[in-house]
């Protein structure tokens, strides 16, 4: 019995199983021992006359000849008393030693820069194909060409947008866990699948299925928004509004829709001028993403929008992003300068 008790103690340490479950198991064994006593009291009655546990004899009954029932019950009682004492004892879970470390946006981008992305690069469409009058108008009055030294980063941007989530990839999992821990404030890893992702604003129990159309870039943008010191507070405000009793919306899913707007705007070369000015692709697109999210936040909060208005809001954001991108950057810079003045230089 002591060996049995020690085994259960090890199970609880490994899997953090509640004491209640183990106590129930002890009670169940004790009931089976009682059943043996009942059988013994029945004397020589045939087996078919015995009524035990719904006409079935307990599994332990076949070992009754080798079981000292009285001694076994004493050991169970001792085990129960010791278990009650264990319930008040603190111990450190071994699972805490294997928690996933957080990851930064720069680390993620460097990972993709070093990763073989050929299978995605050969499928990208970095520039919108125009024909006829539209092509002529774009040639005369369209945005400037992207500097040649930025094209590698631009292509990588679109390649990441084609890259699906891979559970077997350590970096992918670290990004997912970082999002969860940062948004919830916990320091514990969460399961790969589950309702907890819906609580963060994904559509279902698997965030990977929400990334269709934007690939891993959707998570890169979310990560940038919540980790960038200049937009961390904004991310918290948006997340809180997303949980509003009446104005709630799926935070992460909305973010993925905004990534789609950024990808379309980038493909139409609207951001070329700003990318050339800053000589950076990802900094510009991350800020543009944050700026669109800020605009959504202000519209949603001030105009009392609800999820029923989401389609109209996204359409309005798309039009503004493509036709007046400078407004997006200007609003973001003004917000950061006003509410996070010591971080405003990060957007310059």
Description of the structure:
Helices cover 59% and strands 0% of the residues. With 348 residues, the chain is mostly helical. The radius of gyration is 30 Å and the shape is elongated. The termini are far apart. The model is unreliable at 1-18, 39-61 and 86-97 (pLDDT under 50). Residues 171-325 form the ELMO domain.
Nutshell version of this structure?
The chain is mostly helical and about 350 residues long. It has helices at about 1-15, 20-40, 70-85, 105-115, 120, 130-140, 150-160, 170-185, 195-200, 215-225, 230-240, 250-265, 270-280, 280-300, 310-325, 325-340.
Summarize model confidence as the mean pLDDT.
Answer: 81
Instruction: Outline the low-pLDDT stretches.
Output: 1-18, 39-61, 86-97
Describe the largest sheet. none
Number of helices: 16
- Structural class category: mainly alpha
Give the radius of gyration: 30 Å
Strand content: under 5%
> How far apart are the termini?
70 Å
| Residue share in helix | 55-70%
| Tally of DSSP β-strands | 0
Categorize the overall geometry. Answer: elongated
InterPro entries: ELMO_dom, ELMO_domain-containing
Pfam families: ELMO_CED12
Protein name: ELMO domain-containing protein
Domain ELMO: 171-325
């Amino acid at each position: 019995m002591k060996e049995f008790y020690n085994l259960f103690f090890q199970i609880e340490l490994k899997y953090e199983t509640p004491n209640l479950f183990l106590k129930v198991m002890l009670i169940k064994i004790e009931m089976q021992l009682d059943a043996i006593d009942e059988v013994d009291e029945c004397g020589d009655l045939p087996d078919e006359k015995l009524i035990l546990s719904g006409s079935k004899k307990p599994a332990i009954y076949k070992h009754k000849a080798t079981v000292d029932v009285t001694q076994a019950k004493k050991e169970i009682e001792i085990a129960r008393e010791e278990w009650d004492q264990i319930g008040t004892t603190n111990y450190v879970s071994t699972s805490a030693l294997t928690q996933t470390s957080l990851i930064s946006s720069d680390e993620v981008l460097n990972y993709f820069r070093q990763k073989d992305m050929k299978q995605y690069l050969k499928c990208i469409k970095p520039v919108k194909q125009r024909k006829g009058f539209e092509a002529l108008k774009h040639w005369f009055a369209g945005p400037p060409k992207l500097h040649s030294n930025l094209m590698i980063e631009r292509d990588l941007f679109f390649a990441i947008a084609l890259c699906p989530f891979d559970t077997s990839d350590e970096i992918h999992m670290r990004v997912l866990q970082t999002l969860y821990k940062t948004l919830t404030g916990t320091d514990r890893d969460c399961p790969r699948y589950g309702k907890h992702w819906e609580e963060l604003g994904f559509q279902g129990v698997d965030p990977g299925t929400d990334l269709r159309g934007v690939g891993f870039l959707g998570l890169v943008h979310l990560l940038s928004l919540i980790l960038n010191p200049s937009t961390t507070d904004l991310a918290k405000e948006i997340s809180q509004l997303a949980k509003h009793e009446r104005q709630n919306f799926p935070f992460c899913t909305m973010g993925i829709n905004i990534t789609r707007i950024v990808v379309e705007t980038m493909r139409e070369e609207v951001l070329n001028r700003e990318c050339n000015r800053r000589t950076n692709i990802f900094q510009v697109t991350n800020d543009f993403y944050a700026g669109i999210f800020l605009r959504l936040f202000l519209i949603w909060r001030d105009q009392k929008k609800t999820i029923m208005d989401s389609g109209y809001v996204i359409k309005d954001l798309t039009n503004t992003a493509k036709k007046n991108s400078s407004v997006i950057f200007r609003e973001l810079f003004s917000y950061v300068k006003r509410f996070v003045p010591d971080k405003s230089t990060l957007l310059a």
